[in-house]
Amino acid sequence: SAHEGQDDPQDLRQAYRWAVEADPISAFGGIVAFNRPVTEELAKEIREFRSPQDGETRMFYEIVIAPGYTEKGLETLKGKSKTLRILEAQPHNHQNGRGMKQIGGGFIVQDHDYLNPEDITFEVVSEVQPTKEQLEDLKFAWRCVKHVKSNAITIAKGKRLLGMGSGQPNRVKSVEIAIEKAADEIEGSVMASDAFFPFAWNDSVEKACQAGVKAIVHPGGSIRDSDAIECCNKYNVALLTTSVRHFKH
Asked: SMART domains this protein is in (predicted)?
């Protein structure tokens, strides 16, 4: 879900629509994951929702996965496609554990990133203070960016993911992709970065400010942090640091 899931079925249907609208091209032929059980109403939405690209083509998925399904919800989903795989997986609440990556000759082991916004301090380092709404959006964007492959950037507004840039060899390219995905909805949005900005002027920070982003959060820690602060002050954009980076490979 590209929106924080609520128990209200209508909210979950809206979250699903927003998730698809964030990147309908990539969503087509992909996987849909929910953090709440799939009801009949939600299943109908999945089954009938048209691609935002042309408003006519039904969205096609390989897999739907959720913590559960109502009887009618499962029946409705089974009617969407003969090739659709429907999986059930319970959420896990483990607060420890490690991940492994295979490399030549062995493995690299690291702790899983279980940090949530309530676990850290968002420090305002710019002259401009974020609004209450912007701060909530920054926390949402920061929660999202930890699940995105580095170099990772997320742009959000109204606790809705508008665009993300992922897996790029440099951070500015991820910013440019996220800006492109957010398109004309970017004005007044916020941006989160999974690691600090090595450059600001004519680079990631300034490009975001010029595009319409109004608040930015990053870990901080670069020798050029002062450039990022000065850039945000010039454009009247709030800048916050967390002193914690995500960085997912």
From this structure: AICARFT_IMPCHas
Element (H, E) at 202: none
Whether residue 246 lies inside any domain: the answer is no
The residue segments making up the domain with residue 38 are 9-88
Task: Place 5 in a pLDDT band, splitting at 50, 70 and 90.
Answer: very low
Signed CA dihedral, 18, 19, 23, 26: sign only: negative
- List, in sequence order, the alpha helices (H) in 101-246: 132-145, 171-182, 204-211, 225-234
Assess if residue 52 is contained within a domain: yes
Polymer length in residues for the chain: 249
Rounded distance between C-alpha atoms, residue 217 and residue 102, angstroms = 31
Q: Is residue 128 part of a domain?
A: yes
CATH of the domain at 161: 3.40.140.20
- The first and second tokens of residue 15, run together, are 């979250």
What whole-number distance in Å separates Cα of residue 211 and Cα of residue 165?
Answer: 15
What pLDDT, in 10s, does the model give residues 137-154? 999 999 999 889 889 999
Tokens of 226: 């002062």
